[in-house]
Amino acid sequence: MRGWPEMENLLNAFAPELEAGIKEFQTSCRDLFEEMKANVDLLNESMVELRDKLQEYIDRKRTELSAEDLSRYSAQLDLYTQICDSLANGQKDQATELIERLSDHGDLPSQLIPPPSEVCTIM
Questions:
Q1: Considering the domain boundaries, does residue 120 fall inside one?
Q2: Which domain holds residue 60?
Q3: Is 104 within a domain?
Q4: Which among 111, 91, 76 is positioned nearest to 43, based on CA atoms?
Q5: How confident is the model over 10-41, as pLDDT tens digits?
Q6: Do residues 36 and 96 make contact, with C-beta atoms less than 8 angstroms apart?
Q7: What sections of the chain are H helices per DSSP?
Q8: Structural domain tally of the chain?
Q9: Residues with Cβ < 8 Å from 77, sequence gap 6 or more?
Q10: CA 50 to CA 112: how far, in whole Å?
């Protein structure tokens, strides 16, 4: 068949570049995976910290909280616990869904919300 030897020669000419490209792609994928894992680890750390602080807050203020606030904060605590469990088990999609549900239960206690950073102010 005509044309096949030329195609084979062309592919052979590009083989080193293709191999280098594949190795570079594999390295990029590995780096991306490590970055994503680090981001999940950071998210998990933040969620664990919020969960623990919310638990401490509820324990400390239980007798002072209204029934409505106690119910709301307890629902938030339950979601934070589920989020932490999901992240620990590698279930990022489930954790994302749970994070989206947090807004259904209002704001955290104001004492647990960090003040806006002065570094992030705009002129």
A1: no
A2: 4-108
A3: yes
A4: 91
A5: 677 777 776 766 667 567 666 665 665 567 77
A6: no
A7: 4-61, 67-88, 92-101
A8: 1
A9: 51, 54, 55, 58
A10: 8
